[in-house]
């Protein structure tokens, strides 16, 4: 049975370079170093899309030729919040794009039998409620981990959250949308669904293990 979610609240970042890189990422023969590099590169593309609507303000700049009215970012600052462990793989790419962002961490692991998320660590910037949060995790499977992380961020008073994942299952998108009607979701691909172990099909396997070489 197909899972219905609201496609208007999901952005699929399907640039040709993204699709090409994602195919290599999915390949079981891709080794740890290349896998890690690709996760970081894909995070840059996602970050680019997820920050497309950031407000700008005028700034006066003196070029070597003359004065010019240019643009700079205005308004609220950003926080990048990876869900540990696999989310860590997306942080460096995003920091290349937004070097001034603060980084918070939410430690969460999925019980192998029940697939329920368990929180084990949280450390966020003190002014996180004043920031736009990019919540990052390569995999959105059942949505349990992302939903728990979103709930935690909302409790801290964060109003603008953008969830960046690389591969999403329809089940995870629906679970997140049902739990949090205001979150914006970005994914490089939406796959077919989940298998009996709640792994994404076709997916790319265990993202954390492939990033950190703990297979
Ligand atoms: C993976 C992944 C997500 C979660 C997705 O983490 O990185 O956090 O599973 O599954 P869900 O949508 O069903 O919650 P995992 O628990 O394997 O931990 P790890 O990142 O430490 O490998
Ligand atoms: N976590 C992963 O790393 N991969 C999946 O397919 C599901 C959860």
UniProtKB/TrEMBL annotation:
Keywords: Allosteric enzyme, Glycosyltransferase, GTP-binding, Magnesium, Nucleotide-binding, Transferase. HAMAP family: Upp_B (MF_01218_B). Gene3D superfamilies: 3.40.50.2020. Its EC number is 2.4.2.9. GO terms for molecular function: GTP binding; magnesium ion binding; uracil phosphoribosyltransferase activity. It comes from Enorma massiliensis. This is Uracil phosphoribosyltransferase. Pathway: Pyrimidine metabolism; UMP biosynthesis via salvage pathway; UMP from uracil: step 1/1.
